[in-house]
Structures are given as C-alpha cells and as structure tokens.
Specification:
The protein is built from 6 helices and 5 strands. Helix 2 packs across helix 4 and helix 3 packs across helix 4.
C-alpha cells in the first residue's frame, strides 16, 4: 500500500485511490529505486496476482499524469518510474552505471537558466531535464579499477 503522503498527493491531484493505484504506488515506494514497468509487473505477480501488465502500464500513465510518479530513462534508455520525495518541479541526476537517481531542486538550476536567458535573450517558461553521468561511487570504482556496475540504487542505499 502507498504511504499516506502519496495517497494525499493522489487525492490532491483529483485521483481516486483505487486498489491498483494503491498497490502500484506502494510497490514503487518500497523499491527505493526506479523500476521499469516490466520489473514492477514482475514484483506484483507475487503480491497482487490479479494486476496484469496492461493494468500496470495504464496505472503508471495515470499516476504520471497526476504528478505522483515520474518517468526517467535508465541506462540503455529504458523508461523507468519512481515516486519522488519532492512533489515540486525538479530535475534528476541519473547514474548511467548503477541507476542511482538523485533529485535536483529547481533552485539548483536557476542560475544556469538565468545565464541561458541572458545569453540567448530567451524567456524560459518551463524546463524539464535529467542529467546523466556517473555517481561518485561508480566514478571512484572506475578510478580504482573495479567498474562499480550493478543494480540501480536509490540515494541513501548502503553505498552512499
């Protein structure tokens, strides 16, 4: 089941809390990392066998439209879904090696956007981007020769 906070966000977006939305949002929260729709469906086969793949895809689209779930591209450009702690508009830093996703607040990119506006005499009214690269753990592993590739992890996992 989804957390009270996520349920509140669903209600605030005008969405009903259906059993499918509740279970799928809860599974995303419990994962602690972005999941592809296929990974999510596989997890749900054991928890809620009545929820099929088509329901997972439709529910993810509904949760995304409500602003509760965000879609990002993981290494290999496969779409993955996560529930962000920050319900405000923000961006992501995504590690291409391990899949770590870190939220980047809008104010952290404000100076950059101001420079773009001045340099190009352009008025920005919306920005949406994810920045891809290597997290500190993977970069340190590469420097040490280990390659530090593995299962995608979320900020706060043991490797942080």
């Amino acid at each position: 089941m989804a957390s009270d906070e996520t349920r509140g966000r669903l209600l605030a977006a005008g969405q009903r809390i259906t059993p499918q939305r509740d279970v799928i949002a809860g599974a995303l929260e419990d994962a602690g990392r972005p999941l592809t729709a296929h990974e999510l469906a596989a997890r749900l086969e054991f928890v809620s066998p009545g929820i099929g793949r088509a329901t997972v895809f439709r529910t993810l689209q509904s949760l995304q439209a409500a602003g509760v779930v965000e879609r990002i591209a993981l290494p290999g450009d496969q779409p993955a879904y996560l529930i962000c702690a920050n319900p405000r508009h923000h961006h992501h830093l995504v590690c291409r090696s391990c899949g770590l996703v870190e939220e980047l607040a809008e104010d952290e990119v404000a100076a950059f956007l101001g420079q773009l506006e001045r340099r190009h005499r352009f008025t920005v009214d919306h920005v949406s981007f994810d920045i891809y690269g290597r997290c500190a753990t993977c970069a340190a592993g590469d420097a040490a020769g280990s390659g530090a590739r593995g299962v995608p992890r979320a900020v706060g996992d043991a490797a942080d």
